[in-house]
């Protein structure tokens, strides 16, 4: 087989082209835009945090929104139990009301909608489980659920999460926030080798 054969000549074996999916043929799949520079993204988060302090009088948060939803649900199903429970009562100061009265719930709704809009605009909106080649999708989802559960318990113990305590508390030089940051990063680095196969 000569050079002409490799170029797809009339004789010999032709080189097969790369397969093209039907979606690519229709032009439905486009190249994803590159991720934002991490330093620029960090500056953006800092400016948003500063704006929340100036406009709202407090910083960002996340877990408080889910606490509000749980407390509202408990008060709806068992109002007597919720009223007598200190963890629930702290989120029911104005009685049983719509959880949308809590600004953190509105923030989480906005974050979700913004994430979807950003993914669509960048060409990254896909139904896919991000994982390494050595782990299945089901195992990756179990890891994610277990990690989220542990983080939720830790956030309640620390009285804040990585946004409400680390970002907002760290911005005002809270000692508890900086202790949380050190502990979170230390635990993350210590546990990373145990779960390496989830990503590599």
The arrangement of helices and strands along the chain is: HHHHHHHHHH
Q: How far do the termini sit from each other?
A: 40 Å
Low-confidence stretches: 1-28
Tally of helical runs: 10
Fraction of residues in helix: 55-70%
Shape: globular
Quaternary structure type = single chain
Number of strands: 0
Task: Please describe the biggest sheet, giving its number of strands, its sense, and whether it closes into a barrel.
Answer: none
Give the class from helix and strand content and strand pairing. mainly alpha
- Strand coverage percent: under 5%
Mean pLDDT: 81
Radius of gyration: 25 Å
Characteristics:
single chain; 200 residues; mainly alpha; 10 helices; globular
Short description:
This protein has 200 residues and is mostly helical. Helix content is 60%, strand content 0%. Mean pLDDT is 81; it is low at 1-28.
Helix and strand layout, with pairings?
Layout: H1 3-6, H2 22-26, H3 38-56, H4 63-77, H5 79-83, H6 86-89, H7 103-121, H8 137-158, H9 162-171, H10 175-191
Account of the 3D structure:
The protein has 200 residues and is mostly helical. It has helices spanning 3-6, 22-26, 38-56, 63-77, 79-83, 86-89, 103-121, 137-158, 162-171, 175-191. The protein has 10 helices and no strands. The longest helix has 22 residues, at 137-158. The chain is globular. The protein starts with a helix and ends in a 9-residue tail after the last helix.
């Amino acid at each position: 087989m000569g050079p002409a054969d490799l170029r797809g000549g009339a004789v010999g074996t032709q080189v097969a082209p790369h397969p093209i999916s039907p979606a690519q043929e229709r032009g439905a799949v486009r190249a994803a835009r590159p991720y934002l520079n991490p330093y620029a993204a960090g500056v953006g988060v800092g400016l948003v945090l500063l704006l929340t302090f100036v406009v709202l009088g407090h910083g960002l948060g996340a877990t408080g929104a889910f606490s509000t939803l749980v407390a509202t649900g408990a008060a709806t199903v068992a109002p007597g139990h919720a009223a007598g429970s200190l963890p629930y009562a702290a989120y029911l100061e104005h009685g049983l009301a719509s959880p949308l009265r809590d600004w953190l719930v509105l923030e989480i709704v906005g974050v979700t909608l913004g994430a979807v809009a950003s993914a669509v605009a960048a060409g990254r909106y896909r139904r896919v489980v991000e994982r390494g080649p050595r782990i299945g999708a089901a195992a990756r989802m179990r890891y994610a659920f277990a990690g989220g559960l542990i983080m939720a318990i830790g956030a309640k113990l620390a009285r804040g999460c990585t946004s409400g305590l680390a970002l907002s508390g760290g911005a005002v030089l809270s000692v508890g926030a900086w202790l949380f940051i050190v502990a979170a990063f230390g635990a993350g680095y210590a546990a990373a080798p145990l779960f390496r196969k989830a990503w590599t």
